[in-house]
Structures are given as C-alpha cells and as structure tokens.
Write a structure and sequence with these properties.
The structure holds three protein chains of three kinds. By secondary structure, chain A is an alpha+beta fold. In chain A, 28% of the residues lie in helices and 22% in strands. Chain A is built from 17 helices and 24 strands. In chain A, a hairpin with a 3-residue loop joins strand 12 and strand 13. The radius of gyration of chain A is 24 Å and the shape is globular. Chain B is mainly α. Chain B has one domain: Orthogonal Bundle (MetI-like fold), CATH 1.10.3720. Chain B contains eleven helices and no strands. In chain B, helix 4 packs antiparallel against helix 9, helix 9 packs antiparallel against helix 11 and helix 10 runs antiparallel to helix 11. Chain B starts with a helix and ends in an 8-residue tail after the last helix. The mean pLDDT of chain B is 84. A two-stranded antiparallel ribbon of chain C has the order 1-2. Chain C is globular, with a radius of gyration of 24 Å. The termini of chain C are close together. Classes of the chains: A alpha+beta, B mainly alpha, C mainly alpha. Chains in contact: A-B, A-C, B-C. The interface between A and C is large, with 59 and 53 residues.
C-alpha cells in the first residue's frame, strides 16, 4: 500500500450508492422467503467489490493511490506481480523471465503476444523502457518517483528483452516497485499520442480487463478485454464501488450488494461468529502502523523525560481492546511481523507504568502533572483510541485535550509549508500505510522529511546513515539488524509510542474465490468464481 | 402574583402543557442534579465490560469504551440545557438589539440588517454549521457560534417588524413629537411590548437548538470527546447499531423527551398568552 | 406588483452573492490544504504549487471571488480536481437524488397531513381533534435524525424489511422505491404535523367565511363543502409553507443521507467540506442556496399576489 492511501482512504468522497448490479441476491438475503428477486441473477458473472475511493489519475505514471493501483493492476501488465496468498512473494506477469544479474542490473524477457487495445500493437521492451524511465523524468512530476529513485536507465536488448540498470543497489525494488505502482507498463505509442500523460480514461489497455465506465462517486466498471490472450479472467465485469466507510460497506455486503469488502475491526468478531449467509469472514495481518507521535521541538515536549513519561503512560492493551476490539496486535515499530526488519520487542513495555511515568514527569519538573493536546482524526476508531489514551494517561498525571480533525485539516498538521500549525503540534495519533519492504516506511522518518511527513521532527544522523545503507544492503540478516536499530532509535528518542499494525478483516461471498495479497488487499484480476 | 397562579391553573387544565412541563422539569432537574444522579463516573473506562447490555449495574448498558451509558445520558442533559440557555439568550439579545436598530433606525440600516438576516437565513442551517466548524474546529464554543448565527436572524426579523408596527402607533409618534430620545422610546415603550412574544418564541426555539447541538455532535463536529452529548452518544451507537442497539435507543430517548417537553410547553404558553403569534413572521 | 417582483428578485440575487462571498471567505480561513489532500503525501512542493495555480488558489481573494461569480453567471461551476469532472455535472446529479428524496418526503407528508388537518377542522374540539393536535406537535418536535436512526434500527437492522443504505440501482424503480421509504419517512414525519396543523387552522378560517356558510345553508353535504370548496382555499398557506420549507428540508436531508448512506447534495457537501474540496463545496452550496432563495422568492411572490399587504412590507 502506498502512503497516499492512508490519506485518501479516510476522506469521505464516496457516493455511497449501493447499486444492486444484476439485482443479485440482495432482496433474497434481506427478505428471506419473499422471493422478490429471481435467483438467476446470482449466476451473473459480475464481481462487485468495494474500494475506498474513486481513482483520480488513471495514468500509472502519476497514480499514487491504492485504489488507483487496484484498477491499474487489472487493466495493465507489470513484469512481475504480487502473488496471491499468505506469504509476500511475486510471480511473473508480462515477463517470461526476469533475473538480477548483479546488484545493479536486472535482465528481463517479455512474453510475446501481449497486445495493447485500440490497435496500439504488441508490447515490446521499448514500452517497458518508456514506462519506467518516464517516472524518473522530472517533466512528469510523478508522485511515485521515489520508487524508482535509483533507476539509471532501461536498456533495450531486442524486441522482447532488456536490462534495468540501477545507479546503486536497491533492495526494495523487488517487493515495492516492480510488483506495485511503479511496475505498470503502458504503451509508448499511445501515451505519446495522448501528449505524454493522461489523467482520465487511458488510451489503451493490455490487461485481462479494460475500463468500461468511470462514474465518479458511483462506480468504476471493468469489462473483459476481448483482445486478452492469457488465462481468461474470472468475470465478465467487475464493478468497483467507492465507499469510504467500513460500516457502510458492511451493510452493503449484508444487503447483498457486494461480493468482497474489507470490514471494520469492531465488526470482525461478531461477523465471524454469525456470518451473513453464504459468506466467508477472514482476518489478515495489515501493513499499516499506528503510533502516538510527539513533536520534539515543542517547548513542553523538548525534555526527553516528558516524552518518555508519555510513552509509559500509554497503555497499549487497553487501546487494542477498546478501539480495535481485541482484533489487532501491538506494534514494535513500523515493520509488521513477517517482514525483514521486524523488532521482536520494544524498550517500553506495552503495558503502561504509571509510577515510572509520574517519576519521569517529576524529574522533568512537572510534579503536578502536565497538560497536553492530542490531535486525532475524526473517525470512530481513532476517537475511541484517543479517548482511551486520554483516560489512561490521566492516571499518570498527563491531562490531554482531544482535538478532532477531518482529513483535510489533519494531514496538514505538521506540514511546514502550511503555516505555523506545526509549531503548536504536541501529540498526534498517526497512522501510515506501508508496503512489503521496510524501506518504504523508513523513508518518512529521515531528517529530510522533518516538517513534511516527519512531524515528530526526529533528526538522528545514525538513522539517516542506516537508512542509506539498508537501502542497498544485499545481506538479509544485516538488513534486518539495520531496520531494527532504526526503529529502536526512534523509540529511544521518546517521540514515538508504537501502537499497532491493525488487522484487515475481509468478507466475501462464497460464490467467488478472491485473490488477496497477504495483507488482505485485493488483486482483482486474479479473482474467480467458485 | 395573580398571573402566575392563573398561569399554573391554565397549564394544569391544558393536559398537553402539563405533560410538557413534567418532561421539561425532568430534564432540568437531571441537569441540575446530574452529579447526584449518575451511578458511575461518566468518563471512567471499563474496557473489560465494554458494550455490555443493560443490567442492574449499568441500567442502560455500556458503550464501546465500557463507560456507563446512563451516567453519560444524565450528564448529557447538562450540555443540552447549557447550550439551550446560552444560545437562546444570546440569540435573543443580539436579535433584540439588531432588530430594534433595524426597525427604528434609518432606512439604510434597516435595509442592511434585513439583508444580513435574510442572507443568514438563506443558508441551509447545517451547511452553514459545517462551514463554520471547519473554520473553528469542533468544540462547544463552535456549536454555540453556529447556533447563535443561525437563530438570531429569526428574532431580529421579528423584533424589527414589531418595532416598526409599534413605532407607527400614535402614542409613540406623540412622544417623539414631544422630543423623547431614542433610548427612552425603545427602552420604555417598545421593549416591554415585544419582550413577551419574544420569550414565547424563544421557549419554542429550545427544542430546535437542542436538536442542532445533538445533530452536530452526531456528525462528529460538535462537542469534544469525551464530553457526553446526546448527539455524540448517538454517534457512538451508530457504529455499533447492529449488535448493541441500546446505545442508540437510550441516546435518542432523552432527545425525544426534551424536544417533546419544550415543544408541548411552548405551544401551551403560546395558546395561553398570545394565540395569534407565529414563529415565522 | 411588478415593482415588488423586481425588488424581490433583486434581493434574491444580492442574497446569493453575499452568501457566496461569505462562504468563500470562510472556506479560505480554514486550515488544511486541498492540494495535499488531492495529491497525497508524496506530492512535492512544486506539484502542490502547480495545483494551487490551476485551482486559482494563489490569486488574491477578491480576484478569486469575482472570477468565480463571473463563471457562475455563465453557468460554469468549475472543475472538481479530485475526479476531473465539471462540478455542475456532479452537483446536479446529486441534486436529483436529494430532490427525489425531498419530494417523496413532502409528498407522503401532504397525503397524510392534509386529510388529517381537514378531519381535525371538521371535528374541531373533539377528542380526536385533540389527539391529532397532540400527534402533530409531537412529530414536529422529534428531531428527524433520531427518527432516521430509530427507523434504521427497527425496520432495516432488526426486522430487515427494508434496505439499510444506498439509493438503489438506477433504473430499477422498485429497488429505488424500497430504498426511499425509510429516509422519506424520517424526513416527512415532522411535516405531517406541520401540514396537519396548518391545514386545520386555515380550514377553520375558511369554513367561517360567508360563501362557505352559504353553501352550507344550501344543504350541501359537509364533506363536499370541505373537499370541494374549502380545501382549495385552505391549502394555499400550505403551498407557501413548502416554499420556505425547502431549506429546512435540505438540512434534514443531510442527516437522512448520512444515516442511510444515500447519495445526495447534503452528503456531497458534508463529504467535500471534510476533504477540503473547495470547488465542490462552492458549487453544491451555491446550488442549494439558489434553490432555497428561489423557493422563498416564489412563495413570497405568490403570497404578495394573494395578499397586497405583503407587498408593502418589503
């Protein structure tokens, strides 16, 4: 997941229209026995899924949201793609073969016969070169430029093969660039004909599906690509509904309007216990990370002991129980379990230690406690978490005021380019999304990010050095140690209290077989019927 | 004191008003004595007992953080009554001053104020509220500003019309001719004559105001958590509507009691004192 | 009368302009930046700057307002930078949904409220009249969003008789109708009370007028008098009430649209305020304000036509 997703996913842009595409099982589920809808409708080969928002830019080169990628992944091809399943891995997609010849050279051979629609011909190595090199072209101003930051060039060997040349080794390439947003291949000819980039409807497609219909706030319709020669896709059409709110999506699912959706953590247990008829409820580990951040440059928090007092006054188990319904596990940093760089433990125990917090506060010159502001996004789960933090911290003499923000206001809180608000920022309950390589999350906490996304204003030279080194390090164990150390540095600064990676509960009808990444996110092109 | 006796006598024989008065008394008493009525600390978490159903221990169950819903509902009455009192008296004051200025002042002032009233009224309330909340951020003060800004024009317009009507009456014209100052005319002759109907309208406005506060808090743009407002209790409940419906049920009840009570009482007051009065003059 | 109309329309235009300026200035003191929301965290400062220029946010405030008003006068509400579609297209699409909801609400409220009012007037001061009065005031008082929540809980979540959310598949009328019932019920309930009371009051006035008494003297049956003669007159205040009621209806539509997750202009405004989608906020608020001002203007003018005294008041 890209970070942008964390932002957009919470903006309520969606027109929550629950469309009963194909009149499906809706009435049938809602009105048992009334038989208002014919059952044949269920046979319809239409997949109805929910995503957080509308795709805004459908040019893979300038797209940066997960829900744009979910569409793009189905209508374009990449050399390699994430493999559905419970372990993070990749599989070949447009490439017939691909190998890392040395730390800075990757050789690939395309499958012959992949064609672009609308007469734009067969996909060649030239298209790969064009697609990847344009992302680092300053002209395009691509938001995913960072994913290809170390790209030198793509050299074309012959019609189907070429070499990706890096100017320095980049480990995250295999897990976060090639199989993700940065990996989509567009037609050189068609894109140039469209003026070098496009924002709405792409000029052509090469995936198993094509975009048939774009109705902002209503739905995006994908249809089978008639020119697709690979394995036939599972559905005639895929309808993607933009619904930001999980509770709404749940009701939509129960009404029979959806075949697959992510559900809220607070509904998971009940839904698991009593799933709606003909449905499957599952839980996946998530890559998101939630933490309480502290602005180290705020006068009240400049003393390390005050920050540590806050760390000790936050009780992770009660947050997880109350706000996440006991479904999520505590986090030790920004790397979730199962990935390189995951820390097994934290310096500050998960359980709050009020005596220790009080003692630290007293040492810092606040024997009577301290008043602090906690900024929270206006969403049920964060408000709940915020209130738990507030109530528990009060026992250690830390009196917090909760300030709620809608997304527009929240995401500019620590942004120096947006006035002086960052100076007043004290505590913030934050949440970023991530990708299956620690490099992705690590990039936001460098000193260059201070005042951009590093709202804690954490500046640590050792962190920055490790960040650069870990990016290129080929030895898995060494790399693992480096990222662990980086997260330890963050926690030791006192400015971070890591809370959880959340969890991704999903629900789907038993008439489909979903293809999900290990974190429960959909790989729509691989969905099939049961 | 005769009129008070008469008032209660009339009210007693007006079953609707009597019923209304009982409900209003219930709300006001619970607001006054809230700390003595609550069975638990309304903000205390009890995470082990979260989302528990109604029981002898928790009469209205607990919410998602294990807080006692009954205690929060009772404390919520304080917010509702406080917001109602503060906003209605502020609107009344502002409306009175601006309305008299418009009704008695020069014509350009009248036109300008009228335009202000009409413009403010021409915004659909909730959109206006949303816009204001995004400027000031959600808090109790913002709620007050929103409500005052959207309700005072009604009073202003009403006062203006009444002032104009009275200002043209012979005894005022005569006083003016005798050189009476504006303050004297407005203060002695006009104010006492318009204040009665104004109070009745104000009493009928209370349910409206309580509804706006609860509505904003329901949308998550009202009072700051963890302050219990009936609207925010409803908001908490909305997320858990499927499995723990009692939060919504008990969060909505006090709102219904309050709005019904004040409306019944206000209607009866109007019937008793000023049957011709219409809210939307 | 023509003079009155001119003045009234002039006032309406001024109100709309003032409203736009007011809203525009409010929006621009709001903290938060649309560019960072649109572009996402990976946006570079240059990209944000470019978008600012594209949206015209870099120009002086006055210039922005004037250019916005100028465009509006030409029927152009601007572009939505999130979806890259004309604002007008999005707003009017959502407006349809809201209008359907509002009309359905007011429709059933009239269907029930008018007969109730007539019944009350005919049987005035009886027990059932009192009961209707009690009911009317009661439903007026209860906040519509509480009605919405309770009916969602009862009919959709518990009994599962009706769908909980959405507006139904476009083109499938039965489905849309089923989705319409609960929100329309929630919004319309209070109006049943309003209308019943208003019809009762004006019916009582009308029934006392001379020609009705004469009709009665001729021995026409009471129901015929009420429904054939009196109702035609007694319904007028209700019609004008509807004019001024649009604003309130749109406000309650916001709640119904949020509770039932229905598309509509109220929901659109709420969502776009939250995401700082200025062009959409402006477009949607402008359209709903115009709608509101338009309806009050029309109802005031109708009033003025019927009652010359009103003309002098403006």
């Amino acid at each position: 997941m890209s970070k942008p997703n964390m932002q957009f996913s919470k903006i309520r842009l969606s027109r929550r229209s629950f469309l009963k595409a194909s009149a499906a099982s809706a009435g049938w589920l809602m009105l048992p026995g009334m038989g208002m809808y014919p059952s044949w409708a269920q046979d319809s080969r239409v997949l109805r899924v929910r995503d957080y928002g509308d795709p805004q830019s459908l040019d893979p080169g300038i797209a940066s949201n997960l829900y744009e990628e979910n569409v793009n992944a189905a209508v374009h091809n990449k050399l390699i793609a994430y493999k559905p399943g419970s372990k993070w891995a990749w599989q070949l997609e447009a490439a017939q073969s691909i190998e890392q010849v040395d730390p800075t050279h990757i050789k690939f051979v395309l499958k012959p016969g992949i064609t672009f629609t609308n007469g734009f011909g067969e996909m060649t190595a030239e298209d790969v070169k064009f697609s990847y090199e344009r992302i680092i072209d300053p002209e395009l101003k691509s938001p995913i430029k960072g994913d290809w930051a170390t790209l030198e060039s793509v050299d074309v060997t012959d019609k189907y093969s070429g070499v990706i040349v890096l100017n320095k080794p980049f480990q995250a390439l295999w897990m976060t660039t090639l199989p993700y947003m940065g990996g989509n291949i567009v037609s050189k000819k068609a894109t140039l004909a469209a003026g070098g980039k496009f924002s709405a409807m792409p000029p052509c497609f090469s995936g198993p599906y094509v975009i048939k219909e774009l109705e902002p706030k209503q739905r995006t319709v994908l249809a089978r690509n008639p020119e697709w020669k690979g394995d036939p896709p599972g559905f005639d059409e895929i309808h993607i509904f933009p619904i930001d709110d999980e509770k709404t999506a749940e009701m939509g699912f129960e009404a029979g309007d959806l075949d697959y959706t992510r559900i809220s953590m607070s509904s998971y247990k009940n839904m698991k216990k009593n799933p709606p008829e003909n449905s499957v409820v599952e839980k996946y580990p998530s890559l998101y990370y939630v933490w309480l951040g502290m602005n180290m440059e705020h006068p009240k928090l400049s003393d390390e002991r005050v920050r540590q007092a806050v760390q000790y006054a936050v009780d992770i188990p009660s947050i997880l129980e109350a706000a996440y319904d006991g479904v999520a596990d505590p986090a030790t940093g920004f790397v979730p379990p199962g990935l390189v760089g995951h820390r097994p433990d934290t310096l500050v125990p998960f359980k709050a230690d009020f005596a220790k917090a009080k003692q630290l506060l007293a040492e810092a010159g606040y024997p009577d406690g301290i008043d602090l502001d906690l900024e929270v996004r206006n969403k049920a789960v964060y408000i709940a978490a915020g209130q738990v933090i507030q109530a528990v911290a009060a026992q250690a003499g830390i009196r917090m005021t909760l300030n709620l923000h809608d997304s527009g206001s929240f995401w500019s809180l620590g942004d120096e380019s947006k006035g002086d608000r960052w100076k007043k920022l004290q505590l913030v309950l934050n949440r970023f999304s991530s990708a299956p390589d620690p490099h992705y999350a690590a990039q936001w906490f460098t000193k260059e990010q201070v005042g951009v996304w590093n709202w804690e204003r954490f500046k640590n030279p050792e962190y920055n050095q490790l960040y650069e080194k870990a990016m290129a390090e080929g030895d898995k164990d060494k790399r693992d140690q480096m990222y662990r150390r980086m997260q330890e540095l963050m926690e030791a600064s006192g400015a971070y209290r890591f809370i959880t990676h959340e969890a991704v509960p999903v629900i789907y009808t038993d008439r489909i077989v979903p293809a999900l990444r290990p974190d429960g996110m959909p790989l729509l092109r691989y969905f099939t019927t049961a | 004191m005769n009129w008070i006796k008469q008032f209660f006598f009339r009210l007693y024989h007006e079953p609707m008003g009597f019923f209304g008065m009982i409900l209003v008394a219930l709300v006001i008493l619970s607001a006054l004595f809230a700390p003595f009525l609550t069975t638990h600390d309304h903000n205390a978490l009890d995470i082990a007992n979260r989302l528990a159903g109604p029981s002898a221990e928790h009469w209205m169950g607990t919410d998602q953080l294990g807080r006692d819903v009954f205690s929060r509902v009772v404390m919520g009455s304080r917010i509702a009554v406080w917001v109602a009192l503060v906003t209605v008296s502020m609107s009344l004051g502002i409306g009175l001053v601006l309305g008299m200025m418009a009704g008695y002042g020069p014509k350009w002032l009248d036109a300008a104020l009228l335009l202000l009233f009409d413009t403010l009224r021409s915004f659909p309330t909730i959109m206006f509220a949303l816009a204001l909340v995004t400027v000031f951020g959600p808090s109790l003060q913002t709620v007050v500003i929103v409500i005052v800004a959207t309700t005072f024009p009604v009073y202003g317009r009403m006062v203006r019309t009444q002032t104009q009507a009275l200002g043209n009456q012979e005894f005022i014209v005569a006083e003016e001719a005798m050189g009476a100052g504006m303050v004297r005319i407005l203060g002695i002759h006009i104010l006492p004559n318009i204040v009665g109907p104004l109070f009745i309208v104000a009493s009928m406005d209370i349910p409206v105001v309580v509804t706006i506060e609860a509505g904003l808090s329901f949308l998550g743009v009202g009072v700051r958590p963890p302050t219990p407002s009936w609207g925010s209790i409803l908001n908490d409940g909305y997320a858990y509507i499927r499995n723990t419906p009692w939060i919504i049920i008990f969060g909505g009840l006090p709102l219904i009691v309050t709005t019904l009570g004040f409306t019944f009482l206000g209607e009866s007051l109007r019937d008793i004192f000023d049957p011709k009065l219409r809210r939307d003059l | 009368m023509l003079f009155y109309l001119l003045k009234r329309v002039g006032l309406a235009v001024v109100i709309v302009v003032v409203a736009v300026v007011l809203l525009y200035s409010m929006i621009h003191v709001v903290p938060g930046d649309p560019a960072s929301v649109i572009l996402g965290p990976r946006a570079t400062p240059e990209m944000k700057q470019e978008l600012h220029e594209l949206m015209g946010l870099d120009r002086p405030f006055v210039v922005q307002v004037v250019s916005f008003l100028g465009k509006v006068a030409r029927g152009d509400l601007g572009m939505d930078f999130f979806s890259q579609r004309p604002v007008a297209q999005i707003v009017f699409k959502q407006l349809d949904e809201t209008l359907v909801l509002v009309l359905a609400s007011i429709g059933w409220a009239m269907l029930l409220g008018i007969p109730l009012g007539c019944y009350s007037a005919v049987f005035r001061n009886t027990f059932s009249d009192k009961l209707v009065g009690f009911f009317s005031i009661g439903v007026i008082a209860v906040p519509s969003f509480v009605v919405a929540l309770y009916s969602l809980l009862l009919f959709a979540v518990t009994l599962k008789w009706l769908p909980a959310i959405g507006a139904g598949e476009s083109g499938q009328y039965m489905d849309q109708l089923r989705h319409l019932i609960l929100p329309a019920f929630a919004i319309g309930l209070g109006w049943v009370g309003y209308i019943a009371r208003l019809v009762r009051a004006s019916m009582l006035e009308v029934l006392n007028e001379n020609h009705i008494r004469r009709a009665r003297a001729f021995g026409l049956p009471e129901h015929m008098i009420v429904f054939q003669y009196a109702l035609k007159l007694a319904i007028l205040p209700t019609i004008t009430l509807l004019g001024t009621g649009i604003g309130r209806l749109i406000s309650s539509a916001v709640f119904a649209e949020i509770v039932f997750a229905r598309p509509g202009i109220g929901k659109l405004i709420f969502d776009s305020v939250v995401s700082r989608n200025y062009p959409l906020v402006m477009g949607a608020v402008l359209v709903s304000t115009v709608l509101f001002v338009l309806s009050t203007t029309v109802s005031d003018s109708v009033n003025a036509m019927l009652d010359p005294r009103v003309r002098e008041r403006l």
